[in-house]
Amino acid sequence: MSKIAIFPVMSGRNGGGPETYERELVRGLSVHDRETDYHITCLNSAAAAALETGQPNFRSHIIPGGVRPLAMTVGLPWVLKRESINFMHAAYIPPTWSPVPYVFTLHCSSPFATPELFPPAILARLKFLLARGMRDAAHVICVSHDVLARAAEHYRLDKARLSVVHNGVGAQFQPTTPEQRAPTLLKYGLTGRYVLSAARFEKRKNLARLLEAFARLRATDPDCVLALAGDMTWEAEPLARKIRELGLADGVVRLGYVRHDHMPHLYGGAVMFAFPSLWEGFGIPVLEAMACGAPVLTSDTSSLPEVAGGAALTINPLSVDEIAAGLCSLAHDARLRARLSAAGLERAKQFSWERTAAETLAVYRRVMADLKIA
Known about the structure:
This protein is an alpha/beta fold. It has 2 domains: 3-168 and 352-370, Rossmann fold (3-Layer(aba) Sandwich), CATH 3.40.50; 178-348, Rossmann fold, CATH 3.40.50. Helices cover 45% and strands 16% of the residues. The chain contains 15 helices and 13 strands. A 7-stranded parallel sheet has the order 3-2-1-4-5-6-7, sandwiched between helices.
């Protein structure tokens, strides 16, 4: 029986979309494949707990080394050798080096397409690992056609070495009734009309322009608030200053990290979901919002039109005027909201994590057959 290692990085650390991908991939594989011997090689015990499947053919290992650079460089190869692993899937970033053949998932093209959106130290690490992975990986799984096309062009790759496997949307993301979501909304202080945005506080998510645009909506709709769900990062203080400068202290609710099971209620109660990101490899929150019936405003760049599929109001994320116009249109036009809500529900039905896992497993089997791994 083949031994396949899964190497997650974001699990157990409130890692947003990549963490969702790792968790749902492992869960889906545990449903689709009860024969292969899977080894989940985790950086810490929190990740191991988050990825527990309860299936006998899945085992977790904590990579020794403590700090991530040492664990990835020394600890991961040691575990792969110790467990006689045949093949590995690096689910978020490529390994520094690997003693076994591997595939990795490329979640976003932004490190090489829009490097100005990253702090220098983080950018340098990502560019090094991606270049290494593009050179060494047996195959690269891309989460969208946009990512695949940009990666093939930037790294001058044969497209036969790349496959598209779209992300999914969880079954828990579905419409809710006002009665079902009322306790959650009360917990977060969202008792009136609100626009929801869910994103880490980082430059790529374009929250500064969203705040400027929301200030214009607020001038015509003073009872509406902007609810920001997501982890604080190095951009938290500049955004706090922006909120003060725009006079939005009582118009913005910073929710911080929101539990996964609370998000359907937040999506469902929102006037709209606003996601004017500058760059996305996929954009899982767009699908989640659609699946919950929220009308969506998002960007016309990178992979977002591919994911939205015509079921969202798209805008130029570099234009505060366009973002503001989109917010005002959705806030004041109930018929537009109803049309996008219905279209989004249909669009979201085309994506599932079960499909993601099945297509990923097909990639494993195809690549392993090519490599003559039994």
